Amino acid sequence: MSGAVRFEAEAEDGVEAEGGVGRVGVATAPVHHGEILQGVFPHRGRPTRGLVTLPCTVHTTRASFVPVRGGELTVSPARKTKALRAARLAVEACVPPGRAPVGGHLELSGDVPLRRGFGSSTSDVLAAVLAVRDALAGPLSREEIARIAVRAETASDSLMFDGSTVLFAQREGEVIEDFGRRMPAVRVLGFGARPEDGGGGVDTLALPPAAYDGTERARFAELHAMLREAVRTGDAALLGAVASASTDINQRHLPIPRLDGLRAVARETGALGIQAAHSGDIAGLLYDPADPDAEARTARAGRLLHHIGIHEQWTFTTGD
Q: Matching InterPro entries, A to Z (predicted)?
């Protein structure tokens, strides 16, 4: 949404909320599938943690926001405290100065697993902010939404930048580089990379930020350039190479069990690379969707994963 809209105007196709404060706002937010690249990159003259996420269509978060006069704001389920903080910040940003306080009720629903690397918190936060924006007709840009997300959850993913590929500073809420277009499409065979944990995920709040050494930091500069070229040229194979290299670096910080076996499956089935959530327990084998054998390769890889004890699997294609 761009441009300012009169705050109390009733949307022609909306449902007016209590007291004419706005309309009932509704929104959906996507998830991601971990990262293609994560590390440390130069930004504003200093090394800054950044990441490039892999879009995912497997799960969705839905939100509705009913605005009411008064300052109280509630959320359901009550445990969604990050989304509640984000909604409060979004209301503050959308209500013009001098207006009476606005509260309301935020309701979230969806099927996003927690602590696994799908970006469940950011999906909640983004859906909440978009629902508030829809209800109050606020002119929130993607950049403003990113700053709200970081304030609400300390570190955020880049789900709000869905129209392009961005290298995103997750703790600052700023874009380090916008590559100007979507990343090349890939077919993803996703899976739970730590089956012995029973899909319980990773406690990201307890996970210390990775301490990268000088060799790794130099490698990030190379991977940054490779990723820029992959996006510019639509080179899915180069994208897969970046993902594999980033996964290898992350192995020292949050290791994936059976990585040697995963590499063997990737080689045997002609995968473009191995991609992982750098603070979760999911990973994926990447294939070229333009390859006429992509479906057969994916199916064979799924069988081979079963043979090495990885049974939780799903597939999707980015760009669908």
A: GHMP_kinase_C_dom, GHMP_kinase_N_dom, PduX, Ribosomal_Su5_D2-typ_SF, Ribsml_uS5_D2-typ_fold_subgr
What does each C-alpha distance from 207 to 155, 172, 191, 302 come to in angstroms?
A: 12, 18, 21, 30
What's the pTM?
A: 0.89
In 3D space, the residue among 211, 205, 201, 188 whose CA is nearest the CA of residue 316 turns out to be: 188
Q: At the topology level of CATH, where does 18-178 sit?
A: Ribosomal Protein S5; domain 2 (3.30.230)
Residues present in the chain in total: 320
- CATH tag, 187-317: 3.30.70.890
Which spans in 186-308 are helix H?
214-233, 236-250, 259-269, 294-307
Strands 46-69 and 102-110: antiparallel
Radius of gyration of the chain (CA): 21
pLDDT string in tens for the chain (320-residue length): 333 222 233 333 444 555 557 799 999 999 999 999 999 999 999 999 999 999 999 999 999 999 999 889 999 999 999 999 999 999 999 998 888 889 999 999 999 999 899 999 999 999 999 999 999 998 899 999 999 999 999 999 999 998 899 999 999 999 999 999 999 999 999 999 988 766 666 666 567 888 999 999 999 999 999 999 999 999 999 999 999 999 999 999 989 989 999 999 999 999 999 999 998 999 999 999 999 999 999 999 999 999 999 999 999 999 86
Q: Please, are residues 16 and 225 in contact by the beta-carbon 8 Å criterion?
A: no
117: left (phi over 0), alpha (psi -120 to 50) or beta: left
**How many whole angstroms separate alpha carbon 276 and alpha carbon 282?**
6
Helix, strand, coil % (nearest 5) of the chain?
A: 35, 30, 40
- 227 phi/psi in degrees, rounded to 5: -65, -40
Q: Where are the domains of the chain?
A: 18-178, 187-317
